[in-house]
Design a protein that fits this description.
By secondary structure, this protein is mainly alpha-helical. It folds into two domains: 136 residues, Up-down Bundle (A middle domain of Talin 1), CATH 1.20.1420; 65 residues. The chain is 87% helix and 0% strand. It is rod-shaped and about 105 Å long.
C-alpha cells in the first residue's frame, strides 16, 4: 500500500494515539483490583470508578484488536510478527481482566492476579516494542527521505549545468551570426545567468541537507 506524503508525521501521531489509548489500561486494571479489595467502599463511588476503569480497558482492547491494525494498514506500515504477537497478548490480558471485573467484581485476588500478572507485563512489553519499532521506522524514513532529496538536488544540478553549457554554446553561435543573432545572444546570456543562480541555490540546499 502507498504511504501518505506526510508518512513520518502520521506515524508519530499514530504512535501517540495508540499509547494514549492503551497506556491507561494498566492503571485502570490496578484500580479495579483496589476497588474490589476495599471493604469500606461507597457504592456510588465504587460503581463510578469501576465503570470508568472498564471503559478505559475496553477502549484499549478496541485499539489493540481493531483500530491499530486498520490504522497501520492505512499508513502502509507492515507490522512485524513480534509486534503482532505482543499486541495480541496485551489484548488477551485486557479481555481477561474485563471478564474478571464483570463476573467477579468482589474477588480482589483474581483481579489483582489479572492486573499484575497479565495486564501489566503484557501491556508494558507491547508499548515498549511499539515505541522502539515506530521510532526506528521514523528514523529510517527520515534518512531515506533525506537521501532521496539529495539525489533529486544532484540530478537538478546536473540539468542546470547542461542548460548552462547550452546557453554558452548558444551565445557563441549568436556572436558568429553578428547583428542577426544579437537578440538571441541576450536571451542565451540570461539563460546562462539563471542556470548559474539555480546551481548556487541547489548547492546551498545540498549543504543544508548534509548538515541536517
Amino acid at each position: 500500500m502507498t504511504q501518505p506524503a506526510d508518512y513520518g508525521a502520521a506515524l508519530m501521531a499514530f504512535k501517540h494515539d495508540v499509547f494514549q489509548s492503551v497506556g491507561p489500561s494498566r492503571i485502570a486494571s490496578c484500580t479495579l483490583a483496589l476497588l474490589a479489595a476495599d471493604t469500606a467502599k461507597d457504592a456510588t463511588s465504587f460503581e463510578n470508578y469501576r465503570s470508568k476503569s472498564i471503559a478505559r480497558i475496553e477502549a484499549a482492547y478496541e485499539m489493540l484488536n481493531s483500530k491499530m491494525p486498520a490504522g497501520l494498514d492505512a499508513l502502509g506500515f507492515d507490522e512485524s510478527a513480534d509486534l503482532v504477537k505482543k499486541r495480541k497478548a496485551a489484548a488477551t490480558a485486557l479481555d481477561l481482566i474485563k471478564h474478571a471485573a464483570q463476573h467477579s467484581s468482589n474477588n480482589a485476588q483474581s483481579l489483582t492476579d489479572a492486573a499484575l500478572s497479565h495486564v501489566e507485563p503484557a501491556v508494558t512489553d507491547f508499548l515498549d516494542l511499539l515505541i522502539s519499532t515506530f521510532d526506528a521506522e521514523y528514523a529510517e524514513h527520515k534518512t531515506t527521505s533525506r537521501e532521496g532529496a539529495l539525489a533529486a538536488v544532484k540530478s537538478a544540478d546536473a540539468v542546470g549545468r547542461s542548460i548552462k553549457m547550452i546557453a554558452i554554446n548558444a551565445s557563441i553561435e549568436a556572436a558568429r551570426a553578428g547583428d542577426t543573432g544579437r537578440g538571441f545572444k541576450v536571451i542565451a546570456e540570461e539563460v546562462k545567468t539563471l542556470a548559474g543562480e539555480t546551481q548556487m541555490l541547489l548547492t546551498r540546499i545540498s549543504r543544508a541537507m548534509h548538515n541536517y
